[in-house]
């Protein structure tokens, strides 16, 4: 739209330039009259009178031209102002119309979640917190709109491979507004290592590992969009330009369709505290954290239940993150969920969100 305003300015200059030129020319003297009392160059008084009248007539003509020019300039200026106002109105209308589908879509997906009971918004991020209670299990949903790709990142436990810390500790250490637990892990020699392919700041922590069994990779690309799935060669993952991400099992939704859940993950355990992450078609994120009192299969949600819930909410892609005692949701300085261990479990990776 700046280009349109510049074109209007050029039109104004082109329209007024001829009149300014005429005015400038008319202001130049057309004839000079020299009075020389030398008898050899004496000019009769009648000639002087005629010259004076001629000059007066030319000045009158010039005055009329000036009046006409000023009138035209005034009209052109008014036309310019009206054109500018019309252009600005068109710009506002265009912006309003462009935002309308986004507003309608967001209203539609939010209506399925209910009314948010807490919200944080800034020029970098908007987070809305909802309660999830279909009657079979209880938990929380966090809808996240990233306006800045750097408003979300993944932390590594105490910033070392093999280190671990609670989500609350990571949130506090990085001064984040919210956080959830991320990928799975394997313990060894008193340390806790991220499971399989893990990327931090665009770099592979321990190299690329081809997806096997039911493992998948999930994270964000450098433009702030959720990426994930199974990758059997490094080039395929590199092609997505990952910024960070972790690994766990299994994939729940792909392109809005339910992905078959392997039998093993339907029964071991059947019910449990869960953490899942997904995205809508407008790239907003939806995170659901489900409460449960233990990891023995008697409380929490099944993966099939969560898969159905995410599908009903209109989520496009969804991934199951580490659950059980690892499930953690920190928001606005407090622990929102009820960790099944009775306290937060130290984990090697956490997804953090920044205001």
From TrEMBL:
Keywords: Membrane, Transmembrane, Transmembrane helix. The keyword Transmembrane applies. InterPro entries: NAGPA. The chain crosses the membrane at residues 12-30. Residues 174-354 form the Phosphodiester glycosidase domain. It holds the Pfam family NAGPA. This is Exopolysaccharide biosynthesis protein. It comes from Paenibacillus glacialis.
């Amino acid at each position: 739209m700046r280009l349109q305003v510049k074109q209007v300015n050029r039109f104004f200059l082109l329209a007024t330039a001829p009149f300014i030129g005429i005015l400038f020319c008319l202001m130049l003297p057309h004839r000079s009259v020299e009075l020389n009392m030398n008898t050899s160059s004496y000019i009769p008084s009648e000639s002087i009178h005629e010259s004076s009248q001629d000059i007066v007539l030319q000045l009158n003509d010039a005055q009329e031209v000036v009046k006409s020019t000023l009138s035209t300039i005034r009209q052109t200026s008014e036309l310019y102002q009206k054109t500018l106002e019309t252009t600005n109105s068109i710009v506002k209308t265009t912006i309003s119309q462009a935002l309308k589908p986004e507003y309608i879509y967001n209203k539609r997906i939010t209506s399925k979640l209910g009314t948010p009971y807490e919200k944080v918004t800034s020029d970098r991020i908007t987070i809305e917190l909802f309660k999830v209670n279909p009657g079979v299990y209880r938990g929380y949903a966090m809808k996240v709109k990233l306006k800045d790709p750097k408003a979300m990142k993944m932390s590594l436990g105490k910033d070392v491979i093999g280190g671990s810390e609670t989500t609350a500790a990571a949130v506090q250490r990085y001064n984040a507004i919210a956080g959830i637990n991320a990928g799975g892990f394997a313990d060894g020699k008193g340390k806790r290592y991220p499971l399989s392919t893990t990327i931090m700041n665009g770099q592979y922590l321990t190299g690329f590992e081809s997806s096997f069994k039911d493992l998948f990779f999930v994270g964000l690309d450098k433009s702030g969009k959720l990426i994930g799935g199974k990758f059997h060669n490094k080039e395929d993952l590199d092609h997505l330009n990952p910024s960070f991400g972790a690994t766990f099992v299994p994939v729940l939704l792909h392109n809005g369709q339910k992905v078959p859940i392997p039998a093993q993950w339907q029964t071991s355990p059947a019910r449990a505290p869960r953490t899942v992450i997904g995205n809508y078609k407008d790239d907003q994120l939806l995170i659901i954290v489900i409460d449960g009192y233990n990891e023995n299969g008697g409380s929490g949600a099944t993966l099939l239940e969560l898969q159905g819930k995410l599908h009903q909410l209109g989520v496009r892609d969804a991934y199951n993150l580490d659950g059980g005692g690892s499930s953690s949701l920190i928001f606005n300085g407090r622990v929102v969920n009820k960790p099944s261990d009775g306290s937060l479990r130290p984990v090697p990776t956490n997804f953090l969100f920044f205001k």
